[in-house]
């Protein structure tokens, strides 16, 4: 059972007890002082005593106000994993073909296509429990995820703001449902995984540390990962589509339809290439040029310190996101 509610209640009780104790001591002091000095002294000090009592009352109110503005959390050495800290939920109308950008610091991002003409965003802030127990006090305004949510016509911008002191120990996971037809202009994160599914349009992804998975997608994709991997499956690629994937430390995996029309270039200076499509092995070491049909889409795959894998999508795997 969590002790957090009891600790917050204890903080309130301490504040109240402090105010009452100080008020009582001062009143008792004035009472006995008045007996020792006589009635005339009490009369002279009546005004001063009243002012001191008012001061203590104001001090008590201030203590209670400060108590209501702070939140206590205890971390236990015996616990492992994560603890929830708050969530965010919003639904807005959104026509197909619009543009969405999402910038997150730490945490996973999951974006899925659906039939509705609206965007639903759910974000959950989690705290990574440390190895050693800690007693942490934060302002209550930092309790839940701080998110900027701006919509102008058919453009939606979502951004996690970093204003709390425990950002290095917390992260925000996003779960977003969008129309199948959409442009994901800037999906940016520092640490976490990014998952995109059942969409067609233009997608731009930039991730520092983590894995990117793109499933059941049709359109142009630009994905950049510093530490991690990219895995993407493409349907109905057109001549105007362009796919550029770059990974500094990790592998690149793409899955293409058997009858795809595309020109593919791959670079893997310190790795290998594995392809289910036939290619000429006499190409330059660390590079691959693969021509699949004529006048098709352009694909550039780069794994600076990893492998490149090119897979076939079986013909019986149907696209669920619809057609362009």
Give structural attributes.
18 strands, two-stranded antiparallel ribbon, 324 residues, 2 domains, single chain, globular, 16-stranded mixed sheet, alpha/beta, disordered C terminus
Relative helix content: 10-25%
Q: How much strand content do the residues show? A: over 45%
Radius of gyration: 30 Å
**DSSP helix count?**
2
Task: Report the order of strands and helices.
Answer: HHEEEEEEEEEEEEEEEEEE
Distance between the termini: 51 Å
> How many strands in all?
18
The largest pleated sheet is described as:
16 strands, mixed
Mean pLDDT: 79
Structural class computed from helices and strand pairing: alpha/beta
Count of spatially separate domains: 2
What is the overall shape? Answer: globular
Give the low-pLDDT segments.
1-6, 37-45, 70-80, 319-323
What does this structure look like?
With 324 residues, the protein is an alpha/beta fold. It has helices at residues 4-37, 39-68; strands spanning 70-75, 82-93, 98-106, 109-114, 118-128, 134-139, 147-152, 155-160, 170-179, 182-191, 194-234, 242-249, 252-257, 262-267, 273-275, 287-292, 297-305, 308-313. The protein has a 16-stranded mixed sheet that branches. The radius of gyration is 30 Å and the shape is globular. The two termini are 51 Å apart. Mean pLDDT is 79; it is low at 1-6, 37-45, 70-80 and 319-323.
């Amino acid at each position: 059972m969590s002790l957090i509610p009891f600790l917050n209640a204890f903080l309130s009780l301490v504040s109240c007890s402090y105010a009452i104790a100080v008020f009582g001591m001062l009143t008792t002091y004035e009472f006995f002082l008045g007996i020792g000095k006589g009635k005339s002294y009490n009369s002279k000090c009546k005004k001063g005593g009243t002012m001191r009592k008012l001061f203590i009352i104001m001090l008590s109110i201030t203590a209670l106000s400060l108590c209501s503005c702070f939140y206590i959390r205890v971390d236990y050495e015996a616990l492992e994993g994560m603890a929830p800290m708050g969530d965010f939920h919003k639904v807005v109308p959104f026509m197909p073909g619009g543009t969405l950008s999402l910038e997150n610091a730490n945490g996973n991002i999951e974006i899925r296509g659906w039939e509705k003409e609206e965007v639903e965003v759910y974000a959950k802030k989690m705290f990574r429990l440390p190895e050693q127990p800690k007693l942490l006090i934060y302002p209550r305004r930092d309790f839940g995820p701080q998110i900027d949510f701006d919509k102008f016509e058919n453009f939606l911008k979502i951004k996690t703001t970093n204003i709390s002191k425990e950002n290095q120990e917390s992260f925000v996971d996003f779960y977003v449902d969008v129309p199948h037809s959409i442009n994901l202009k800037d999906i940016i994160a520092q640490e976490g995984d990014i998952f995109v599914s059942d969409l067609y349009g233009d997608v731009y992804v930039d991730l520092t540390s983590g894995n990117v998975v793109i499933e059941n997608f049709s359109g142009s994709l630009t994905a950049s990962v510093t530490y991690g991997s990219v895995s993407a499956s493409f349907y109905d690629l057109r001549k105007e589509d362009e796919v550029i994937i770059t990974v500094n430390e990790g592998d690149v995996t793409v899955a293409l339809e058997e009858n795809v029309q595309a020109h593919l270039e791959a670079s893997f200076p310190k790795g290998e290439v594995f392809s289910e499509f036939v290619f000429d092995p006499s190409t330059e070491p660390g590079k691959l040029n693969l021509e699949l049909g004529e006048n098709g889409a352009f694909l550039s795959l780069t794994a600076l310190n990893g492998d490149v894998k090119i897979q076939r999508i079986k013909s019986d795997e149907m696209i669920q996101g619809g057609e362009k």
